[in-house]
Structures are given as C-alpha cells and as structure tokens.
Amino acid sequence: MENVIEVKNLVKDYKKMKAVDDLSFDVKKGEILGLLGPNGSGKTTTMNCILSLLKFNSGSIKIFGKEMKPSEYDIKAKIGVVFQEIAVFEELTVYENLDYFCGLYIKDKKIRKQYIEDAIELVGLDEFRKFYPKQLSGGLLRRLNIACGIAHKPELIFLDEPTVAVDPQSRNNILDGIKKLNEKGATIVYTTHYMEEVEIICDRVIILDKGKVIASGTCDELKELAKIEEKVTVEVSDLDSKYVDEISKFENVESINYEDNILFIKYKKGKNNFGDLLDYLKRENIKYNKIYSERPTLNDVFLELTGKELRD
Fold first, then answer.
1. Low-confidence residues of the chain: pLDDT under 70
2. How far apart (Å, rounded) are the C-alpha atoms in residues 110 and 120?
3. How far from chain centre, in Å, is Cα 173?
4. Which pLDDT does position 47 carry in this prediction?
5. Selection from 188, 191, 197, 174 nearest residue 122 by Cα
6. Distance (Å, rounded) from C-alpha 292 to C-alpha 101?
7. For the chain, which has fewer Cβ within 10 Å, the N-terminal or C-terminal residue?
8. How far is it, in rounded angstroms, from Cα 230 to Cα 242?
C-alpha cells in the first residue's frame, strides 16, 4: 500500500532530553492509525514535527511522497488537524466558524457552501448552525471543533484526543463520524487515552514511549504480546483463604486477588484454565453468584509495555 506519511530516523531534543529518539514509522493510505503512548512519550512532539510546527534535529519526514517543510502549502492544504484544545472563534456562529476555516482552503463559494453542509451533516450540527460556541454543550463544541478541522475535505487528518471529556452519546457520534471520513477515503492519525476507542476504529496501532516505538501492529497482534492469556472474575461470598491459596498454586495462575467478595485471577498461557477452575469450585462445593472469563485487552498490553507508574 502507498505510504501517506514516512517518518525516518526522527530525532528531536529539548536541551538534554530526547523527546523523539531515532523514530521511524509509516502511515498507509486509507488506514486509521492509532498513535498511543503515556504522557511524555513523544506523541505530541512527533505530530508537531510531522506538521512542520516544530523544528527537529535530524531525520526526514515525507507526506504524500514529498519532503514536509513549513513552506509546503500545497501539502498543508490536503491536511486537516483537530487538536485537543478547542480552537474556534467565540464571536462567530457555528456556520460562520465553518465558513472561515473552510475558506482558508476553498475559495469557490459554491463549493465551500456544499463542503460546509457536508461537515454539518457529518457531525450532526444542523439544529445548531446559528448558535455561538458559548451556547453549545461540551460535546457539541467538540463536534464543531472537528467539523472546522475537516470541512475542507482533507486527504490526511490528525485527531488529537477528540473525545476527551464528552458524554457517551457525543463520543459515539464522533467515532461514527471518524469512520465515515475514513470510508470516504481519508487517512487518519488518531491519538487517545481511551483504549476501547482504538479497538473500535483503528486498523493499526503504534505505541510510543520515551520517543521510541515499543510496539506496533493490529489490536489483535498487540494483544498477543500480553503476558496473561485469560482473566477470570468470580463473585463469591466469604471465600475461605485456604481456597484462595490452593487456586493460586494452579499451574498457569499468574496472580490472584480476593477482595470485597470478588475473586480475580490472571492466567498465563495455557489450556482449559477456566474449565479447571470450574471443576475445582464444583468439587469443593463452593457456591458462586457469577463467573466470567475475558481475554487481555489493549489496555492490559499498554500498561504492561509502558508501566503503571503515573506520568506527568
């Protein structure tokens, strides 16, 4: 597949700190790439370098096969950017905001009007076109922010945590809109801390930490990196500690915890872990209210790879 973005050996220093450390990756045409990482991992710096908003020390960046520079306005016209911070004009209505941002790229008024209508329909703002930003809820404001970034129908879109601090209904609307943009041909680079969103919309994922790629692949491929194979939760009242101790000695148990009448077991790779546990509970006549098994999530893998300590 054709590469829309090519980053090779990118290095960006801030005094003595390497924010991006010999970073290389590609973004394929038509895919939604999830760019993940904890705070301070280099995501924002990488995006700003790609967009020529930040000078870098060494390496190369190509977009649409051409070297990206601050003066490459023909490339920039094909790019849409939606930053986490809301960037709209308070003194303009929804429609006027869209007309302004779309007008930066689309001079033909007839075409621009159609593009604006398409953007309004995409994010579901038809009833609010005459509203000012201060009259919009947080979710509607996020949707306006996205519409302003994509109204000119860019071929490449950067979305930086577009669903932060919105209600579930707005989040679903935004995710549906992103999928529609992709179905219409847009290539999308998506950053978020919500791993469930990544599993829903991303074709491929890159995890960064300390300015380096520490893992990449599809969500299923990344889940294969998990040390645990299975997580089992049992709701059981007043479980004697001897049973917890005996279960902890099962062959494939990685860890076990019993608290507030919930038994939580993590298993390493192995077969029939769930079946063996059911047999044991039946044999010991242990009554439980509910039991269920689940596979490792992308969030489990992310925490395994990047650690659980808090980041600034």
1. 310, 312
2. 16
3. 16
4. 95
5. 174
6. 50
7. C
8. 23
Question: Bridge-partner residues for 246, per DSSP?
Answer: none
Give the CA radius of gyration of the chain: 24
Beta strand spans in the chain (E): 3-14, 17-28, 32-36, 58-63, 66-67, 79-82, 156-160, 187-191, 204-209, 212-217, 230-235, 253-259, 262-267, 290-294
pLDDT for the residue numbered 310: 66
Find, among 262, 260, 263, the residue nearest to 250 by Cα: 263
Interval 122-139: pLDDT, tens: 999 999 999 999 999 999
Which whole-number Å values give the CA distances from 303 to 29, 123, 189, 212, in the listed order? 29, 32, 21, 16
Fold category of 230-295 in CATH: Alpha-Beta Plaits (3.30.70)
Task: Provide the 3-class DSSP secondary structure of residue 272.
Answer: coil
| Residue 155 main-chain phi, psi, to 5 deg | -85, -25
3-223: CATH topology is Rossmann fold (3.40.50)
Q: Give yes or no for a contact between 292 and 213, defined as CB atoms under 8 angstroms apart.
A: no
CB 277 within 8 A of CB 247: yes
Name the one residue in this structure whose structure tokens are 């689940």: 294
The answer to whether the CB of 206 falls within 8 A of the CB of 265 is no
pLDDT value for 312: 64
Could you tell me the residue ranges of all domains in the chain? 3-223, 230-295
Terminal Cα-to-Cα distance of the chain (whole angstroms): 37
- Is residue 189 a contact partner of residue 219, using CB atoms and an 8 Å limit? no
Return the closest-CA partner of residue 123 out of 91, 158, 93, 162. 162
